[in-house]
Amino acid sequence: LKMSWFWFYLPLHLLMAACLCYSIKAPTTSSQQSFKTDLFNFYHSLMLADGKETTIHLLKDIPKRYYFVLEEGRALAPFTITVTPCDVPIEWSILVHKASASFLGKAAQGDHDTQEVSKSQKAPSMVSTIFNYKGNSVETYMGMSSHSALYMLEFLSTERDTHITVYLTTDTTSGQLYPELPVDPRIDVIGIGHTTVTLTWKHSPSVLQHRENIQYCLLVNEKHNYKSLCAAETAIRSSGMKLPPILALSLSPYLLEPQQVMILSNSELSIINKASSGDVRQICMGTKNTYTVLNLSPSTQYYFDVFIVNLLTNASAAYTGTFARTLEEPEPKVMELKDGKVIQVVLDGKNQKFYSLQYQARHKKIQFTFQLCRGQVRVHIMKNGKTVALENISGLRYFLLKGKLLDTYLVQLRSTEESNSSVKVQVSPHFHKPLFPLLPESLKIKSFSKLRTCNSVTIAWLGTQEESKYCVYKKRIEEDRVWMELRSADRCSGPESRHKSEKVLCKYFYDINLQRAVTTETIKGLDAGTLYLFDVYLFGPSGIPVRYHSKVVKTRKKC
């Protein structure tokens, strides 16, 4: 008899029984060969650990076998086996050696692919199959044996290489490895918006018993539901990303991959995985059983899976997944533009929504004027459905367009920053009186460092060939407020928004020769070693001002 290492694990009476049976001459050559095959399969299997979750890697079309032994000790020896496929459907079976004379067992979960086999078969084989299953669901088998028995589990993947987890326990009194699902494990959708979905689910009994060691994790994606946490992790990894070891981590920080974004707020851990097929979002929210998923895309179907996870063992159980489609985004309101009328539009940077304006031409040549007040704005102009202009604007921008009478123009505006942006818009016939003054080549203000003193600074700015009014204003600021002042400045606001004490002077000037259209001004009465913000406003015939770019200058500390 060829010995195998696993014989050392067998109880002595089973070993003797097996040897005795093998020494008896079989009645026929075929039955003898079958008996040898059965024993060979058992001897070339690995032992399955009791009370521990085991990860098993399967190669395509190559079966893998594990065995375990039930000892005598009481009238009925209970045991449970839970198998979790982590990718494709698999086939798995439980086989028992005929040395076990009687066996009672049942599947914890019914399935059309699951079969129960009676305690023995009238075949010459020494091994009988008591349970088999094919699919990708988490399946638990519960059984009882009235005698010492030798069992073998056989696993097979016919689609591709994959991995599974297997949990065997013979101790049914000290609690389960996996968190317990409620009687009704469904996820209910209780609210749907354009960019939000609100979910709720019944509490797990494990939460009520071990609240500090249990938490819920939600997975959101646009492809399909997942029947287990390891299946979800496998799918995400297959898209080219790496995951943390388990979604159910405590809220302590850990390293993320470059394609991952972690958001931690209000005791919730959210991880967004950037993949070519879309975002996969994971949120762990403690023991809350109601959650609103934010920042979804309108008119998009999403799949939602909730996992209840034991933080001490990393074992998890999956609720029955659900899906929902967000509402369609309402058509943006279109505002009509009128000849020569100026409107100011505030754009929501957070939601990145378009603001639409429409104009029907009464002339063949028209001019659109945009004055950027705050932030950054992208302008898209279409004529009769075709794009004629598309660009990000800064400062003051004109678009002169030619067409036919009654052409329809649609202007779409969008903030390109997360903060709100603002812009003034005017459309008019080309020959219409200009809204804004003639502008110089540059709107920058220059200061002269050598001309600075402890109580004065000298600034200069460009003018035009058209006589215009220029007003200078100053404001004392702190060093830590410079960036904020420049960032939040409304470039469309005029001197009316300034305090009277900030006004320095107003003056008129122009020069036919643009090379000499430069003016300077020395501002006196300043404090030593102090930062000042200087602004120049240019007024045209219409009275609407254009603000030069603010200039920050610091007076000398010692003179």
TrEMBL record:
Keyword Ribonucleoprotein: no
Main location: secreted
Biological processes annotated in GO: nervous system development
Signal peptide: 1-21
GO molecular function, one term: heparin binding
Fibronectin type-III domain mapped to chain residues: 179-316, 437-545
Keywords of this entry: Glycoprotein, Neurogenesis, Repeat, Secreted, Signal
Superkingdom to which the source organism belongs: Eukaryota
Subcellular localization, as worded in the UniProt entry: Secreted
Any one of the GO CC terms: extracellular region
Task of the protein: Secretory protein that plays a role in various cellular processes. Acts as a chemorepellent acting on gonadotropin-releasing hormone (GnRH) expressing neurons regulating their migration to the hypothalamus. Also promotes neuron migration, growth and survival as well as neurite outgrowth and is involved in the development of the olfactory system. May also act through the regulation of growth factors activity and downstream signaling. Also regulates extracellular matrix assembly and cell adhesiveness.
This protein's name: Protein NDNF
Lineage summary: Eukaryota, Metazoa, Chordata, Craniata, Vertebrata
